[in-house]
């Protein structure tokens, strides 16, 4: 990974490492074509600090985000540093709610690509008959669309919809995924995106799909969880994607 940008003295090593990983994550989302111009958001909980996390400065393109210009906020979206930028208020209700309620979730990514949004429009939601769809079995919650996510009163309903799962389909909108760290969250997002792409393509082909028994889908999901329970697996995937991105685009800092 890029190491040409020096760590400022006022930021400790743990926070700096998190900032570098999160900035790379924003660039990866752009690299894969999953951005929504300046909208959407990725948050990461600060290590060893209660109720503080890093988010993107609202108004910047994902490719303009660096470890230094990420902003620090609390779970209510209040800015905790002297950055000239503000966060996107539409992200605070969603991200703040999840970070407050779920100790097992340290990173949350929200996207609405064409494929994911198409699946979110369908009553059936995600199917589990493809290789990637099967990996999502038992991991998806669904939340009814209430408009742009701006208001605190929706927090409890979003959390109820999410339950103990790691993927929240925002009906008629998009998704939010969350995992223990940035690497695992990105891998989960990639899996969800691939499942949506294949489901949309399969639907466009017409004809009957070959259904998988629930027992097989469940087994597939459990096997995937066993793989990523060791952070080394997700880290290998994540760092490989960063290398691929930088080999094609060059380092961002």
UniProtKB/TrEMBL annotation:
Biological processes per GO annotation: monosaccharide metabolic process
Signal sequence region: none
Occurrences of domain Class II aldolase/adducin N-terminal (ranges): 20-200
Pfam families named in the record: Aldolase_II
SMART domains assigned: Aldolase_II
GO function term, MF aspect, one: actin filament binding
InterPro entries: Aldolase-II_Adducin_sf, Aldolase_II/adducin_N, Aldolase_II/adducin_N_sf
One term under GO cellular component: cytoskeleton
UniProt superkingdom: Bacteria
Family, similarity comment: Belongs to the aldolase class II family.
UniProt protein name: Class II aldolase/adducin family protein
Species: Marinomonas transparens
């Amino acid at each position: 990974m890029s190491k040409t940008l020096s760590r400022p003295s006022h930021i400790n090593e743990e926070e700096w490492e998190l900032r570098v990983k999160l900035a790379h994550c924003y660039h990866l989302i752009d690299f894969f074509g999953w951005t929504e111009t300046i909208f959407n958001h990725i948050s990461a909980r600060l290590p060893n600090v209660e109720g503080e996390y890093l988010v993107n400065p609202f108004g910047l393109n994902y490719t303009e985000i660096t470890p230094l210009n990420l902003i620090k906020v609390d779970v209510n979206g209040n800015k905790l540093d002297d950055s000239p930028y503000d966060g996107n208020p539409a992200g605070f209700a969603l991200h703040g709610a999840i970070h407050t309620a779920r100790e097992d979730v340290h990173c949350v990514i929200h996207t609405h690509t064409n494929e994911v949004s198409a699946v979110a429009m369908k009553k059936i939601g995600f199917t589990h008959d493809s290789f990637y769809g099967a990996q999502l079995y038992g991991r998806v919650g669904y939340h009814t669309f209430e408009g742009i996510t701006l208001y605190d009163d929706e927090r409890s309903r979003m959390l109820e919809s999410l339950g103990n799962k790691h993927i929240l389909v925002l009906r008629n909108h998009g998704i939010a995924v969350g995992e223990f760290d940035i690497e695992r969250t990105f891998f989960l997002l990639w899996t969800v995106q691939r499942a949506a792409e294949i489901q949309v393509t399969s639907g466009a082909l017409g004809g009957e799909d070959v259904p998988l028994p629930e027992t097989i889908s469940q087994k597939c999901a459990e096997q995937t969880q066993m793989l990523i329970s060791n952070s080394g697996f997700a880290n290998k995937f994540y760092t490989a994607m960063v290398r691929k991105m930088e080999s094609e685009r060059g380092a961002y800092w």
